[in-house]
Amino acid sequence: MRVDIITPSELDAAHRARWHHLRHRADAVHLKNPFYAPEFAQLVGEVQTAARIAIIEIDHQVAGYFAFEQSALGWGRPLCAWMSDHHGPVLDQRAGIDAARLIRGCGLLGWRFDHLPADQSGFSRFETGRARGWLMRLDGDYAAYRRQIDRCTGLLRRVEASMRRLERERGPLRFDARSTDSHAMQRLVQWKGDQYIRTGQIDHFAIPWVRDYLERLRYRDGPAMAGMLSTLHAGDRLVAVHLGLRSEQVWHYYLPTYDRELFRFSPGLCLLHCMAQAAPTLGLDTIDFGTGDMGYKRDLSNAQIELAQGAVEPAPVRVARRGGREAVRLLRRAPWLLGAARWGRRQLVDRINGLRQSGLH
User: Containing domain of residue 356, as a range?
Assistant: First the structure.
């Protein structure tokens, strides 16, 4: 195996064609997601100088591609870091890849992952856990999907009732699958940032490269990877907005948010319902919810994929991480210590968010 490292801007047309050929192999459903398109790697390369692509050759033939980011200390992370909902190498199904050898070939000390398809067998010995990826499989027929879901849950009927109430009280509903409204984008950034702060999470939207990335994603348009800013209005009022990305077949559910003053109408679910109805007309057969064991994902999904979590790294580091996980388990048995740890984390997150917000003004 030989590994050559290039920047995303150096990826030529021949390599893009080969990459797409590998993405469309019949047995790799997950590779249809737009995060695995070479155009996504090129987009991230425009805002992240640490973005790299490994070209993997076996017996002098290109057997795969692996997009990643390299930190200043030599450790690797997924491309687009914490904004990545899927990552891992795109490989020829006949290629047997040793993960440790691949990571060393990339010049990395290690590589952490949390959304790696579990069928990447070369990484299995580095797994520390798994999560479910939830899929809404429409297969070109929303009516058939609806009948299947209605047999299991009444969520869609409740959402439709909410839409009727919203329309009666606020005005006619208007859905736009791909909006060019700059005001809607501004609202998404504001509402999502407020949500991060309210729930004690780090406000990634205050990071300059993330804002740049999202703005570029919004305007990106191509058959394999395109940004999709979707909106729902009631009368003249914007009630929900979602920024996602699509490939030839998959619409990735990425950054949804809504007007909290109207939360009793479930505006986020109303927008999602409109997206599901529109997807087949746009040539999309799947909405990928990513991970997260949320009730609406369980109720609306009719398929799942297994995603692995772990790290390819030297044995001493793995042992140390295992000790850290054991310490966390012990901590959970002492509620007062756990409460103190959570309080300390919240203070740290609030401090980070405050510093980032002050840097924007």
Answer: 314-361
